[in-house]
Design the sequence.
């Protein structure tokens, strides 16, 4: 899809969001979609958890929801087949994982190749998997952040579309760092959806290009330098 964003449903990219829990990233996308010039609309919110807060958020926004309870359905393949059927029936052109706590089968990932994205709360490839904030603090890194990436079969691996960097503060706990990173996720995830829906994102192997994207020129330094050094000698 390309060209000028339009609020006509037929011209807005149909996206689905898969979520298992709180759904704050879903909410950020819902809020973004409410803007008349946002080039995407949510056609389905799907969860594996019948009690997920994400489902309440979706219903509150008047969105179509589906629940496939992984405890009921049996195998991973059966779950992914059912999910794929729901997504295809809803006409999803892009599938956004937002706190979706299930590993997807290679068949599912292949069916949505370059149409399946995820947000992960670390600067990948550092700290894939769980407990990212505690691991980042223990490693003493000065920056944490989040990554929005295309999904491949390996967990938390795939071409990186965009990242945020947030400073790790003195005295941070996993919770305080998580709050800062999560807030940054809410800024970046809807932005990536917009770029994709505007047809500006291209994947070439492991690299992603975004037409017209502006790259910041300044270095981020943490801790802040207290001396100024001239660039020229
Ligand atoms: C986010 O930190 C996301 O990066 C990770 O799971 C969390 C989901 O949070 N994959 P929410 O359900 O969107 O609030």
Sequence:
């Amino acid at each position: 899809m390309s060209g000028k964003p339009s609020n006509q449903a037929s011209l807005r990219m149909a996206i689905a969001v898969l979520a298992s829990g709180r759904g704050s990233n879903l909410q950020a996308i819902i809020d973004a979609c409410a803007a008349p010039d946002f080039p995407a609309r949510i056609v389905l919110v799907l969860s594996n958890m019948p009690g997920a807060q994400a489902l309440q958020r979706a219903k509150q926004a008047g969105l179509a929801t589906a629940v496939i309870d992984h405890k009921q359905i049996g195998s991973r393949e059966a779950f992914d087949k059912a999910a794929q059927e729901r997504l295809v029936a809803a006409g999803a052109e892009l599938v956004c994982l937002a706190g979706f706590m299930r590993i997807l089968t290679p068949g599912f990932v292949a069916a949505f190749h370059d149409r399946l994205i995820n947000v992960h709360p670390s600067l990948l490839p550092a700290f894939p998997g769980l407990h990212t904030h505690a691991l980042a603090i223990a490693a003493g890194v000065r920056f944490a952040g989040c990554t929005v990436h295309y999904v491949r079969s390996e967990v938390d691996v795939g071409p990186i579309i965009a990242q945020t960097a947030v400073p790790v503060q003195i005295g941070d706990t996993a919770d305080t760092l998580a709050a800062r990173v999560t807030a940054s996720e809410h800024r970046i995830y809807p932005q990536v959806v917009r770029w994709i829906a505007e047809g500006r994102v291209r994947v070439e192997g492991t690299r992603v290009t975004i037409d017209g994207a502006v790259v910041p020129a300044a270095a981020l330094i943490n801790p802040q330098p207290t001396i100024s050094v001239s660039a020229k000698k």
